[in-house]
Amino acid sequence: xxxxxxxxxxxxxxxxxxxDKKGKVIKKIKYPTGKGKNNILKKILVSIEFVSNNMxxxxxxxxxxxxPGVLRNEKIIKLPNIKGFENFDIKNYLSNKLKMKxxxxxxxxxxxxxxxxxxxxxNFNNLVCVTLGTGVGGGIIxxxxxxxxxxxASEFGHITIEREGLKCRCENKGCLEEYISVRAIKRxxxxxKIREDNIIKIQxxxxxxxxxxxxxxxxxxxxxxxxLSDIVKILDPELILLGGGISNSGNLIxxxxxxxxKKRIYFKIPRVxxxxxxxxxxxxxxxxxFLK
Length: 292
Known about the structure:
Blueprint: E1 3-9, E2 13-20, E3 25-32, H1 37-51, E4 60-67, E5 70-72, E6 75-78, H2 90-98, E7 102-106, H3 107-118, E8 127-132, E9 136-142, E10 145-146, H4 177-180, H5 182-191, H6 199-207, H7 211-235, E11 239-243, H8 251-264, E12 271-274, H9 281-287
Parallel strand pairs: 1-4, 4-7, 8-11, 11-12
Antiparallel strand pairs: 1-2, 2-3, 5-6, 8-9, 9-10
Helix pairs in contact: 3-9, 5-7, 6-7, 7-8
């Protein structure tokens, strides 16, 4: 039996899995991402060691790494939400350390790939995946193939939804990411005078029926719907998948997003679903980089 390792490097956590060719998760581990390049790289190495412990390297096809930012020829150009990785060749670094095959891809593209191979995207030719977490990313599959453009396609988080809106970390104004990311949820909650600062607690309270917490997701979901409507008008996918921590809110975010899409799109909107593989979608997708 052959196996693959997938690492999903996120702004808040590092999720690493060992899967077989059928997509079954054999072993997994999560670490908080923390700060500092050396510290983060150490955690990645330790997590890979943990899931591959006592295995013959010949049984592992390779290690896929999903990173939240811009790549060129598998070299990191910039990770907007993780400092210290500018112009860093993570593939070469890990290859030298581990003496194994390494592939590097954008994390949202990995999530789209994982869902396309083993998740809710299995029976679709064209789909879009949008990740909602520390930042907002995207992955596009057209005619069953990953679409990258010239290498920077699907940066959905930086679609402008408000011309003179909030300043984004990318230095532009009004980016979608500032209205639907973790920091956006916290900002909206604060504006509504909600004392709770923990996004998981805000989500839990909203699910329990707290009207103010539900309003947070109504506001954020409406902004998401504006961004998704632009994506649909350009790509017209069969399916849109939402992943990342914020997507765990389910219908709290789905309902206002879909309602806003219906207002803004003059033709039938595509299906919009939450990723099937949940928190493992990105890591499983990274491992899928070694499937033909």
